[in-house]
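Bug #2210: token dump truncated for tRNA nuclease CdiA-2?
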Amino acid sequence: MLMVVAETTRSHRAGVSPQSGADARTGSMLTSTLAPLAFSFLLAFSCLTPAQAAIVADNHAPGGQQPQIANSANGTPQVNIQTPSGAGVSRNVYSQFDVDGRGVVLNNSRANISTQLAGMVAGNPNLAKGEARVILNEVNTRDPSRLNGYIEVAGQKAQVVIANPAGISCDGCGFINANRATLTTGQVQYGNGQISGYDVNRGEILVQGGGLDASSVDSTDLLARAVKINAGVWAQELKVTAGRNQIDAAHSRTTAKSADGSALPAVAIDVSALGGMYAHKIRLVGTERGVGVHNAGNIGAAAGDVAISADGALSNRGVIQSAQNLQLSVKGDLHNQGQLYAGKDSVVTASATLTNDGMIAAQGDTRIAANALRSAQNSTLAAGLNSDGSTASSGALTLNSQSSLALNGRNMAAGTLTAQGRTVDLDNSRTSGARIVVSAATGDITTRDAVVAASEKLQLAASGKLNNHSGLLTASQLELKAMALDNQQGVIQQTGEDDLRLDFRAGLDNRGGEIASNSHALALSTSQLLNQNGTLLHTGSGGMSITSEGALDNGEGTIAANGNIVLHSDNINNRSGKISTTQGNAQLITRHELENSQGNIVAGGSLSLQVASLRNQQGQLIAAQGDLAMSAEGGLDNREGVLAANGNIKLDADNLNNHGGKISAAQGDIQLTARHGVDNSQGNIIASGDIQLQAENLTNRHGQVGTAQRGSVNLTTSGLLDNQQGTITAFDALGIQSATVDNRQGELQSGGNLNITIHNRGLDNRQGQIVSATALEIAGVNLALANTGGTLLAASKLSLDADSLSGDGEVLSQGDMSLTLRQAFHNAGRVIANGNLQWNLSGLGLINQGVISAGQALNLYAAKLDNRQEGEISAGENHLTVSGELVNRGLIDGGLTHIVATTLTNIGNAD
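Reproduced locally. Full output below:
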């Protein structure tokens, strides 16, 4: 009966050798006549079903390789496998091997045995010498084998090999009681009674519909030129190798074959959206150059590793995950639009470009390397990521690119994140880790609109520029190295106390940005610093040092520190900006100009400035609890500005313009030296201590120079001291040394002695006041004193030594007075001393239309005295010595009046 079935089946198989014409016709008629009767007869005895014709032994094979095919009692096809070799390999050759939904039983039992598919089956008489270790099923046909049911090994477990070079399809197939299942389109390499390997040249394995269930099998192998998975594959350990290969029997060594010119499959391993691989451990290998792996489904190892390698590209739109390690290696491009996840570590490498639009992550470490790596804005690269989305305790993320590295999505590491490339693009990313190390070997690092946060240390090193435009860089410790930094509208923060040093030789642009540090010390050096509307903030306990070889532009910006600040620059622009220390000192050094118009430079301690020139229009320079010292080789423009210190102020400049400005030492002295002029018009120079001012010229029109609580004022000018409508006061002594003093409508006042020394020119005190609370001394070479409407007043003694005195003003002393004039004097005012008055005109004339009075003795020496009708000369004792004529039309009065004159004419009163 079995032979008839085999012959009938074979007569319909393509490729059978043709018969002679008569024999062919006879055979055909015999078959047509007997087939209905035989079919009915056999069906009634349950020995033949339509499915039986799907498994046919190859009658061209040696007899020892032809299995016997029968039906079991319940109609399930049963294959009595051939006698195994000494190595335990049963070799069975078929011309057709198709399995329908009923499945098939491969009988590997010498005794009767119960099976899941067929119930009780009789023992296999071919196994008298022992059961098979390997059941090899070779199919010689031009058609793929269709496996639509389970393949069960009856008896002892064995490896099941199904080899069909024409291809294999699986739709609801599976294996029962097999310890290993191998589906291959390769030619079996058989010798010495055992399988040495598989020679794969063509053929496809297709899993579809009901899928492939090898979940009870220890290991499953799929070996083909191409593998297509359109349904689920369930296995313990799954190994898939695609391409033209020589593969050893253990599936441990694969040797790719050279190209033979045949058409390449589109994809070596293709898992569709309906497909999936579910195993404890998965390994996928595609060896054919230029032919890759595609996954739109699910590839998951529930307990072990997943390993995928491809000589071409890998495209993943689905899920590839492992409970343990995940390893992907491709020689072409790798494009991930889905999820790649490892329960332990993941290693992903691509010889070409790796593009990530999805997630690549691991609960442990993640290492990714490619020639070029690009991770899109909504993507994720992670290490130390638990399956529920929470963060693990550790996990290192390592990213390496031989060219460009673009990480624009979420990049996360529970431990260290390392990213290396020729250029590194982190724009728009959210990058975090305990430690982050990013390096760009030949180009820039960009973090525009990104957040890069390290809980411990952040290291960025670029051979080009670091561009953090609108980005955020934050860490407990920062280490940033680049030729230049662009931090426009960006934020850079160090929260820890380790010292921070930033060096950008090609410039730092912090316009609208913020660099904030809590480090102990902050040192920043650059060729040019742009901080317009930006903030440089140092809140640590140490100092801040900024060095700019070129410009430092802080227009409308802020540079602030708790401790000391030291700024070195070619020039500084702080227009409408703020440079401040809360507690420390501030030192600014520029080779050229310091522009502080409408700006504020405030030191909690002392403030020191060394500049070529300073413009402080409406600005403020303040030493809140210390001294202010400034050296300007050029000019100091403080118009409507403020120079203030709680301690001393020392200014050294070519010239000082303090028009409408204020220079104030609240608890100290002021020392001001100007090689040319000082303009204090409408300004204030005020100290609680001493004031020393030395300049070529001093203009104090409507201005004020003075000491408030104590101290003396000493003013020295080689030219003009212009105090028109100004005020110069000293709590103690006031000393003035000048070529010319213009005090019209001005005030010169002292609480101590007031000394005025004039060189070569005059003192103009018209409508002015020169007042001393003690002694007043005025002297000079070629001194001409104009005192029309003016007042000279001393509380104890007044001494005047001048060439000439003019005007109707007052010369007053509450004590003694000494007057020496070298030109004739016409007195229309009052010259009064409450004590003695000593007046020497050096042989010159005196015309008196005013009052000359002494409370005690008056000693007057003149060549001629004309005391006109309005004149009054009075004293306790009058001693008038006139070498010429004395004419009195007014009043000469005294307790004692002693007159010595060559000629005396008394028309008035002389007592």
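Output looks complete on our side. The helical segments are 2-10, 21-44. Marking as cannot-reproduce; reopen if the truncation happens again.
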